[in-house]
Design a protein that fits this description.
Elements lengths: L10 E2 L7 E2 L2 E3 L27 E6 L13 E7 L4 E6 L5 E7 L2 E6 L7 E6 L4 E4 L5 E5 L5 E7 L7 E2 H6 L7 H8 L3 H9 L2
Antiparallel strand pairs: 1-3, 2-3, 4-5, 5-12, 6-11, 6-13, 7-10, 7-12, 8-9, 8-11
Length: about 200
């Protein structure tokens, strides 16, 4: 929200509160505390011993209720060597990524019909922007761990991980749809769906 209606709106789940802004009930500003605007979760490295070798630790309105209506959030991204934050999109936010440690190959794909890849290798201190809604990824191309901080232009940017959404939906997308969309055999679709 670019022009807030009040100084802040600390999100609460108490429906007895009378102010309702941006999908959340607001805490009475008179009882807001410093902890409503605080989160210590980015101190701790994320667990990267998983299939993708990466972990995203968000700091959005779910972790920091005081972010409600402020239009910003952060995420810490930890990567094992060769770890991947897979192709995904934030439909409600632009992302700006800063590398704190390691070397990342990052990129995004422009919209149809061009579907052009815009990509670059980033080093410690480098910054890269991913426009709102475009599919993008981060890959650690180094032999050591990597860490980045992503700032996002929404207190609740949302995320759609492409492979999870397409091959891991519940219920599953029909193999007829996926075989035609990806121009592959049903065995390939069955295999990919079995991975999610």
């Amino acid at each position: 929200m670019s022009n807030p209606l009040q100084d802040f709106c600390v999100a609460v789940n108490d429906t007895k509160t009378t102010v309702f802004v941006n999908g959340k009930v607001c805490k009475d500003p008179k009882v807001a505390t410093a902890n409503d605007f605080f989160f210590s979760g980015l101190r701790v490295p994320g667990y990267t011993s998983n299939k993708l070798g990466s972990m995203v630790t968000p700091a959005n309105v779910a972790q920091i209720p005081g972010l409600n209506t402020l239009g910003i959030s952060l995420a810490r991204v930890d990567y094992a060597p060769y770890g991947l934050n897979p192709p995904h999109t934030h439909l409600r936010a632009t992302e700006i990524l800063t590398v704190l440690e390691g070397t990342l190959y990052v990129g995004f794909v422009t919209s149809n019909p061009d579907n052009r890849l815009i990509a670059k290798v980033l080093y410690k201190g480098d910054v890269f922007v991913f426009p709102e809604g475009l599919i993008h990824f981060h890959l650690n191309v180094g032999k050591t761990k990597a860490v980045a901080i992503a700032a996002l232009s929404s207190q609740n940017p949302g995320v759609i991980t492409i492979a999870n959404a397409v091959f891991g939906s519940k219920p599953a997308i029909s193999a007829d749809v996926l075989t035609k969309a990806f121009q592959v055999d049903k065995k390939v679709v069955d295999y990919l769906q079995s991975q999610f």
